[in-house]
Amino acid sequence: MPVEGLSINLATVRQQWDMRQAVDACLAQGITAIAPWRDQVAKIGLDEAARLVANNDLKVTGLCRGGMFPAADPAGRAAAIDDNKRAIDEACTLRADCLVLVVGGLPETSRDIVHAREMVADGIAAILPHARAAGMPLAIEPLHPMYAADRACVNTLAQALDICELLGDGVGVAIDVYHVWWDPDLARQIARAGAMGRILAHHICDWLVPTRDLLLDRGMMGDGVIDLKGIRAMIEAAGFHGHQEVEIFSAENWWKRPGEEVLATCVERFRTVC
Amino acid sequence: MPVEGLSINLATVRQQWDMRQAVDACLAQGITAIAPWRDQVAKIGLDEAARLVANNDLKVTGLCRGGMFPAADPAGRAAAIDDNKRAIDEACTLRADCLVLVVGGLPETSRDIVHAREMVADGIAAILPHARAAGMPLAIEPLHPMYAADRACVNTLAQALDICELLGDGVGVAIDVYHVWWDPDLARQIARAGAMGRILAHHICDWLVPTRDLLLDRGMMGDGVIDLKGIRAMIEAAGFHGHQEVEIFSAENWWKRPGEEVLATCVERFRTVC
Questions:
Q1: DSSP assignments along A28-80, one per residue
Q2: How many angstroms separate the CA of residue A138 from the nearest CA in chain B?
Q3: What's the burial of B1, exposed, middle or buried (CB within 10 Å: 0-12/13-18/19+)?
Q4: Any idea where the Xylose isomerase-like TIM barrel domain is (chains A, B) (predicted)?
Q5: What's domain A6-272's architecture?
Q6: Angle, in degrees to the nearest 10, between helices B259-273 and B19-28
Q7: Which residue blocks in B72-151 are alpha helix, DSSP H?
Q8: Tens digits of residue pLDDT in A17-48
Q9: Mutate to test the interface with B, among A114, A117, A118, A146 (most CBs of B within 10 A)
Q10: Class of domain B6-273
């Protein structure tokens, strides 16, 4: 029986399986939507990944990830732009709904977050013509402020939407509850994103108390404190009715369990607490 | 030679010394401003702590901390209010510039951060008459969003200032660079806080890359990525020229070093990078 509306970001089972194995396991549990990471695609080859998608009629809710625009020198920034164009092409080959952008943090030795943010807007502007020509939407994913220095200096939905307004069509947002659940302005910004027609993805997991690692201690839906149903209601009221994509990095828990158990738990929690 | 404008939050040397020893060590290095925690005061006794302050003519830039207002039941909320009133009285006895409020996170089993935020505003409102009568300013400290669940659901300066506007005189903000440096709205909100006359404290440390622990891996000024001089300029331009208070929780580094070395480093960095 297919599980309607659920997508599995393959980072959730990256320690257990390669992309081919993960797809087989998803299909075995009725999951027909996925979101792979570029390294997972590269490992089996882009052509083989595209065949897996086409032959199994998979929905690809996003490709992770482009971004990482700020760099200390022009050569670094140019290299990032080239890599992002390749990522756009890969997303097209995989028929992904969007290319997710984790925009990057401060360049080495920099303390100038304002400048880093300018480099992000400039970088997205530079790849946007390529994305538009390819018909591939770019999804800026605001990351939790605890990643501002080293992963993404776009840290709120408001900030991401300001960039969308600045740059025009072809760019929107990926809303990951882990990154935005704390935001006092969340309800207003989700409504704004909907009114702008910019919601491209809805990622779910949970915030654990305590959280033991800044990166690799995300929780399974229902095990933490995020009001998943409440945020889902905001996103649906804003007009987005796409898949909820589970993305869990969990070095000490879910990555150590059998992949089948992880997927079965995702399905069960998706049906009960999301 | 006195170190003008530097205050040491005694949490910075809490593993090395009790309050009496910390005061002696500060004075030996020309540091005449401190901010103790209530448990440090309690350990030597409030009267003795007050004598230390008076006899040495110490500036007390704040008492840490009141707050922790949200609770699952009315009895819990009432207990928090009583405890905050005692904290106000202690801050008066110590002639502190303000009582710092770490407002609290989600009550046990709650996923309703909107309600927790209402409980915070209600709690501050409940203690404000006592604080006003005592002449003790309350300093809401917005905490980094990574503490939204378990320590403070006030996570931006904007949010703290909204509460100040709601409640009127007697309440302001403590601006800790560690908690706010990432905020895209920082410059505007610091200017707003200044225009409102609400800046009560300026805390400093640094954000390390990587940060290895959510709570106890703060960096010494200059060792991380925060634009300390830039934020100081914003705060001074907003009209606050009080002490910069060093507050470093560092289980694996500074708490393991000799206290004299920690203080000497604080002085040297204060003079060069802050």
A1: HTT--EEE-BHHHHHHH-HHHHHHHHHHTT-EE--EEEEE----SSHHHHHHH
A2: 21
A3: exposed
A4: 24-256
A5: Alpha-Beta Barrel (3.20)
A6: 50
A7: 74-93, 113-134
A8: 999 999 999 999 999 999 999 999 999 999 99
A9: A146
A10: alpha beta
